[in-house]
Amino acid sequence: MSDWKDYVAPEGAFKDRVILVTGAGQGIGAAAALALAKAGATVILSGRNEKKLSRTYDEIEAAGGPQPAAVPLDLAKAGEAEFAQLGMLIQKEFGRLDGILHAANGFAFLSPLSNQKLDEWVDQFRVNVAAPFALTRALFPLLSAAPDASVLVLGEHHALEPKAYWGGYTVSKTAQGAWIKIAADEWDRHPNVRINWLIPGPIQSPFRTKTHPGETKAEIAPTESILPAIQYWLGAASAGQSGQTLVLHEPQ
């Protein structure tokens, strides 16, 4: 496990694998989808903005990756029916699912608890943990049928070190860790399926720009620095490792 931060995926490491990426329209989700496609994966792109999904789709096609699929889905609004429909679509069109990268991120804004509203907490909890849980549950029959399947959830370092003003967002991201531990424990009887929690730390992304507007890109790691870790934990190299909390870049 020691080399996961600098992992170099063998050529075609994801050939014949089908991977669903949420939050695939921008930032880490888009970069990961492109990297996975270059490594041979058939990527199902999911996100709420069709125009952004189309841009990622076009980048994958231009790079010569397997033809992706784009499925607009707003995790803040989608429910059981939409997740079930997605499962049926994947089964019909691809016949398998080998992994999920939960890169979608629900965030309102930084403020003291006294200014935060119930609806903001509920929306963030839904996007960051409740919807990913429900989506994974809906797709679990496909994952459990795969010879080697991985679910990777992107976290945030304030989930490990809660601080003032991060409020409902941090609480929702902290809940991810509990869900992942429970799922990993329950999936013991499915050794072919694993779930892990990857915390990027300070890294270039639209989210980081929003929370740290005065920071320059030179001060933090580039988006691409997370791609080796994503390929390791979604691919065959991480087989047998589940329920892990993985920190890529430690905060300064």
UniProtKB/TrEMBL annotation:
Keywords: Oxidoreductase. GO terms for molecular function: oxidoreductase activity. It comes from the Bacteria. InterPro entries: NAD(P)-bd_dom_sf (IPR036291), SDR_fam (IPR002347). GO terms for cellular component: membrane. SUPFAM superfamilies: NAD(P)-binding Rossmann-fold domains. Gene3D superfamilies: NAD(P)-binding Rossmann-like Domain. PANTHER family: DEHYDROGENASE/REDUCTASE SDR FAMILY MEMBER 7B, SHORT CHAIN DEHYDROGENASE. Belongs to the short-chain dehydrogenases/reductases (SDR) family. This is NAD(P)-dependent dehydrogenase, short-chain alcohol dehydrogenase family. It comes from Andreprevotia lacus DSM 23236.
